[in-house]
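User: My collaborator sent over this chain with a note saying "see what the structure looks like." That's all I know about it. Can you take a look?
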Amino acid sequence: MSMYDKLNPMQQEAVLHTEGPLLILAGAGSGKTRVLTHRVAYLIGERGVNPYHIMAITFTNKAAGEMRERIDKMVGFGSESIWVSTFHSTCVRILRRYIDCLGYDTNFTIYDADDQKVLMKDVCKRLQIDTKIYKEKSFLGIISSAKDELVSPEEFTLRAAGDFVKERQAAVYREYQAALRKNNALDFDDLIVKTVELFKSSGEVLNSYQERFRYIMVDEYQDTNTAQFQLIKLLAEKYQNLCVVGDDDQSIYKFRGANIRNILSFEEVYPEAKVIKLEQNYRSTQNILNAANGVIANNVGRKSKKLWTDNDEGEKINFSQFETGYEEAEYIAGEIQRKVREGSCSYGDCAILYRTNAQSRLFEEKFVVSNIPYRIVGGINFYARKEIKDLLAYLKTIDNGKDDLAVRRIINVPKRGIGATTLGRVQTYADENNLSFYDALRQADDIPSIGKAGAKIKPFVNFIQAMRSKLEYLGVSGLLQEIIEETGYVAELEAESSDEAQARIENIDELISKTVAYEESEETPTLSGFLEEVALVADIDSLQEGSEYVVLMTLHSAKGLEFPNVYLTGMEDGIFPGYMSIVSDDPSEIEEERRLCYVGITRAMTNLSVTCARQRMIRGETQYNKVSRFVKEIPVSLLGGMVRKKETDSALGGTQEKSFRQAASRVNPVFSTRNKYQTNPYQSTSFSSSSTGKITLEYTSGDRVKHVKFGEGTVTNIVEGGRDYEITVDFDRVGTKKMFASFAKLKKV
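Assistant: Without extra context I'll predict from the sequence alone. Here is the result:
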């Protein structure tokens, strides 16, 4: 028996078809890497292809390393001649030899992200662009997107004609690219762009590489952008022996420039292409695969395929609906502890998946309290994230000015132009006079060596003192939001207009929710008490040791991984799919979210639990969300578990479609009768004070109002709380939201 006989029929067909363009649609867990390595072995061992003429290309160094290792093991002698590499490494090797054809020296420098930021700062300075308004990161993101689509500075300029904002972007793009050229440098996007440019301008160079790479294989083809597509198309043009492997149902990196059209239109570009579908899954139970098939079938922009397995049918998908996000985290922690205690699994068999990094907080806090070891994958523990540490440092400074580390952390956040020399002189004065660093700042006028720098220190001290005076009537949550607004912390992130900045804003929103939740849970909430509670759950380094831990990660980070027990959490419209996808006019946005859900479902091997909450706190506001549309797309016969609410636990039977649909669409939860204003001493004293100035409303219950983010809706309830009002609005597009009037800024329509 040969090694090829161990492959299933479709895998065998993919391995044996060596000539001409080939599209392998490899479903989740279908053994695509096995097919690729066997195909390389077959080309060399059975077809007599010189290893020198074979190229295998993928995206990450890790993936390339794993492929290299497998090929070396299978092929043996001569495998070192096979070109196994990432896109960027491939292009670097080519450009090191031939970039002089484009007027660069072959010893060019490759700029990393930090180098790019420094260069962009200089560019903005030369163009007299105010980087407080137009962020360097925003320009870099726009330029990167243009390069992904092979849009040159000249073409970008032509497209920008008549649009003031785009014309400014075009000017920055031109100046940035000119600066790179002057420095004989390339950024990472240029590595692909310049290689394509080289091939198009030099037929001789292109021909030499076409002769070298007569058999080309591309992994994760669904993740390629336009520039990478053009690169591969040019290389394969002569011999057409191009094999691309991918799964359009797992194309989830649009935000990084991935173009799903590359895989969907492969047969249009190559009419003679053969298409082979790998639909047999070796990872999951059939019930899990049926759930995934049921969800992804709702996408229009996809190649038809249906996963199946020889594995057991398996358990039903456990669907659980909770009253709050806290109850959701509590339940999952309890379930994991129960399974570990019973010996049915270990901590390392479990993964918690969520849509955004900010959702990790509740699970982290619950796991710390429950002594469950865990690790954040593809992210940083919630309380260790820069934006969270910055804002907590402000709160610590207001609460306790003797915390020198906290003061030093935020004295230049945002930038106040207080230099290291000045800070050193303040520290010396503090040491000589046995003062805390903050107290020394308060006495800056008495430090002889400070000079004019004292004028920069004074506003910081005044700000901290002002916040201290406001604490009594703002409370912890109000104080945090005041800090965010006065420092412009979120405004700066919004100006960046990047995915990273948006994730940081979501983390800040989650911190606001934490402060509100703390105030609601304490009879006498204090700033010191809040910081103490945070400290008890923030020190989690001891939980990172060893390999036995529950994994917490976003769905994007989970791609390519598998776990026996998967908990797919936060499955509510507005959370997953996200609000912006729901209201977008582009249907492809929801389809990308649905593909992400498909990825999440197919990470599960044996048990899949899907959870959601009827009410969840977002940025300190209680939001009431419907069960995610993706949950409703799972065939009801596959669902088991419980729909939980405060009054009762009602079983969710597999055939009770009507009751499930009712439960899944229910959006009127049981309201707590507790009035937070009556239990918050800071707010109650404030509200009785005539100096605070009570806000007035231009609308009343029953009026139609408009929110800047949620659109139009009807006011259904107003609770007076002294200085502020708690407003409940039933929005037309996003359902019921509860918010404070001063932050909601509703307009009557």
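A starting point for your reply to your collaborator: DSSP finds 32 helices and 22 strands in the chain.
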